[in-house]
Design goal:
Elements: E1 8-10, E2 19-21, E3 24-26, E4 30-32, H1 42-50, E5 54-58, H2 62-70, H3 76-88, E6 93-99, H4 103-115, E7 120-124, H5 131-134, E8 141-146, H6 149-161, E9 169-172, H7 194-207, E10 213-216, H8 222-231, E11 235-238, H9 240-243, H10 252-260, E12 266-269, E13 280-283, H11 287-293, E14 308-309, E15 315-317, H12 330-337, H13 364-372, E16 376-378
Parallel strand pairs: 4-5, 4-11, 5-6, 6-7, 7-8, 8-9, 9-10, 10-11
Antiparallel strand pairs: 1-16, 2-3, 12-13, 14-15
Helix pairs in contact: 1-3, 2-3, 3-4, 6-7
The chain binds flavin mononucleotide (FMN).
Residues 33-36, 39, 58, 60, 97, 99, 124-125, 145, 172, 175-178, 216-219, 237-240, 243, 350-352, 354 line the site of flavin mononucleotide (FMN).
């Protein structure tokens, strides 16, 4: 029996090798991926770091989330600085995820994270072409997220012109939670399966000096990790499994929605979808998604994280600002899921394709023991 009173099965696993990035030797080659809005904050990132993996804070809408927690207004810079400092205070490696699409807060978060001594900045949802130019990263490793070898090549060429090379790359396939880096109609192509994307991305990483390749999207258990490491991956990034841990800052309702989700409940929101234009994974029953499907929610954009600049450089453009036909406001839905404006807005739950396999709450310690094959594998009560 484990601490929750559930049956457990002892699984003898394969020992996982450490992951080395920019001279930092990470004992467990598991990166807990950044999860916004307000899902992966310092309590989760710090706990993963203490267990020997890498804890990653999400920077999406972090200024609002931390302002609410602290009861005073924090800038994006201060929020990033504080969350990195808290994540690292008990030891281990921690960093931040920065979405390129969130243009207005982007540079301030890079600066806050580097100043706070982040071990890693992991950046995707767009091509992080400017990342090494914003501030001298010092000891902070800069890691782009890509979904194709071509995207990695573009980034390498641009960064090389700035005298920098990626310290590692995260290759994210189509089974991940959050936004996906594929066109909707290309999600199910055989060539886009993570297993098939890996060899050409590894080759590209070798061509540009040989840096670690970390795979993400749909990795669920110890055997998945071992399988990808045997293929030549240097580490894995996982999000979905960490949502339903005690340390995760998702609301209890969010965690329960993941536990309750069946395979057919996890769908790609597309038309209406995210105003970023990227496919976005959701739990079908999420209130905000249901309202979007029925076009019930009036177009509102009062948070503005997804705003793009107009021709004059004024940030006032968002596809879900004026009309609801193709997209809906994910800022408000995701903030609601993070407990930001309960009752005022309906929640929007995002999760990876394998989320339906999760059947109960656990702790980071138990999950990391299961994933590394050093501990107990939690079993369904019914077995
Ligand atoms: C709830 C949730 C929120 C996420 N938010 C972000 C995000 O803000 N930025 C990002 O780059 N990736 C985000 N991701 C992707 C994760 O960082 C990670 O790469 C992905 O979850 C890996 O796939 P998995 O969920 O199948 O483990 C999110 C994933 C989930 C499940």
């Amino acid at each position: 029996m484990n601490s929750e009173g559930h049956q457990v099965e002892v699984s003898a696993g394969v020992e996982l090798p450490p992951l080395v990035i920019k001279g930092k030797k990470i004992p467990v080659p598991i990166i807990q991926g950044g999860m916004g809005v307000g899902v992966s904050l310092s309590p989760l990132a710090g706990a993963v770091a203490q267990e020997g993996g890498v804890g990653i804070v999400s920077s999406a809408a972090l200024d609002r989330v931390i302002s609410k927690r602290n009861g005073r207004k924090c800038s994006a810079y201060e929020a990033a600085y504080e969350e990195i400092s808290l994540s690292k205070q008990s030891g281990g490696f921690a960093g931040i995820n920065i979405m390129v699409a969130l243009l207005q807060t982007h540079d301030a978060i890079v600066e806050g994270a580097i100043d706070a001594g982040a071990d890693f900045i992991i950046s995707g949802a767009g091509l992080p072409l400017r990342l090494p130019l914003i501030k001298d990263p010092g000891e902070t490793a800069l890691i782009p997220i890509v979904s194709s070898p071509r995207a990695l090549e573009l980034i390498c060429k641009k960064w090389e012109r700035a005298g920098y090379r990626p310290d590692a790359v995260v290759l994210e396939g189509p089974l991940a939670g959050g936004h996906l880096g594929f066109k909707f109609e290309e999600l199910n192509l055989e060539s886009n399966r993570l297993e098939n994307l890996f060899p050409p991305v590894k080759e590209m990483a070798e061509k540009h000096g040989g840096f670690p390749v970390i795979v993400a999207g749909g990795i669920y258990d110890h055997s998945d990790i071992v399988r990808f490491l045997k293929m030549g991956a240097d580490g894995v990034q996982m999000g979905t499994r960490f949502i339903v841990t005690r340390e995760c800052s998702a609301t209890d309702a969010y965690k329960q929605a993941v536990i309750d989700a069946r395979e057919e409940d996890i769908v790609v929101a597309h038309n209406p979808g995210s105003p970023s234009g990227l496919p976005f994974m959701v739990i079908r029953q999420s209130g905000m998604y249901q309202s979007a499907l029925s076009r019930k929610r009036k177009p509102v954009c009062d948070k503005g994280y997804m705003l793009r600049p107009d021709r004059n450089g004024v940030f006032n453009q968002c596809d879900s600002k004026l009309e609801n036909s193709n997209s809906f406001c994910i800022c408000n839905g995701l903030l609601s899921s993070a407990g930001y404006n309960p009752g005022l807005e309906e929640p929007l739950y995002t999760v990876g394709v394998n989320g339906y396999r999760i059947d109960r709450l656990t702790t980071v310690k138990e999950l990391m023991a299961e994933l590394t094959g050093t501990g107990c594998k939690a079993m369904d009560n019914s077995t």
